[in-house]
């Protein structure tokens, strides 16, 4: 069932894949500047990016919950790692909004 979405994208949205990958890379590049995020933008090659939350008190689940309250959905894979998927409906403005919300999380962790 999960592959159905991929197959649909390949059949109907191949032209937009480069755009999605570019947006994911842009977000990764922005996140790379935040001290509490560990990500290598050079490793982001698709619309999916994974990164670590590096904070002595708060973990990826806290991060997920904080962003959920901001209307941003992502997935904590474990206590350290977060997975983000950039969908077709995500705009450049949304990338900026996501970054700003993540930056705000960092401001809240002192």
Overview of this protein structure:
This protein has 110 residues and is of the alpha+beta class. It is 51% helix and 14% strand. The longest helix has 18 residues, at 14-31. The protein starts with a helix and ends with a helix. The radius of gyration is 14 Å and the shape is globular.
In a nutshell, what does this entry contain?
The protein is α+β, with helices and mostly antiparallel strands. It has helices at residues 2-12, 14-31, 60-69, 92-108, and strands at 37-38, 48-53, 75-76, 81-85. 51% of the residues lie in helices and 14% in strands.
What fraction of residues sit in β-strands?
5-15%
- Summed up, the helix count is 4
Fraction in helix: 40-55%
Major sheet size, sense and barrel closure: 4 strands, antiparallel
Which structural class do you get from the secondary structure elements?
alpha+beta
Q: Evaluate the radius of gyration.
A: 14 Å
Order of helices and strands: HHEEHEEH
Poorly predicted parts: none
Q: Let me know the average pLDDT.
A: 90
Span between termini: 42 Å
Strands of the largest sheet, in order across it? Answer: 1-2-4-3
């Amino acid at each position: 069932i999960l592959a159905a979405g991929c197959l649909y994208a390949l059949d109907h949205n191949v032209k937009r894949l480069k755009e999605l990958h570019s947006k994911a890379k842009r977000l990764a590049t922005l996140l790379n500047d935040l001290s509490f995020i560990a990500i290598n933008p050079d490793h982001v090659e698709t619309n999916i990016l994974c990164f670590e939350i590096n904070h002595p008190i708060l973990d990826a689940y806290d991060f997920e919950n904080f962003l959920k309250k901001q209307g941003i959905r992502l997935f904590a894979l474990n206590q350290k790692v977060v997975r983000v998927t950039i969908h077709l409906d995500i705009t450049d403005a949304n990338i900026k909004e996501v970054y700003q919300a993540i930056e705000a999380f960092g401001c809240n962790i002192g």
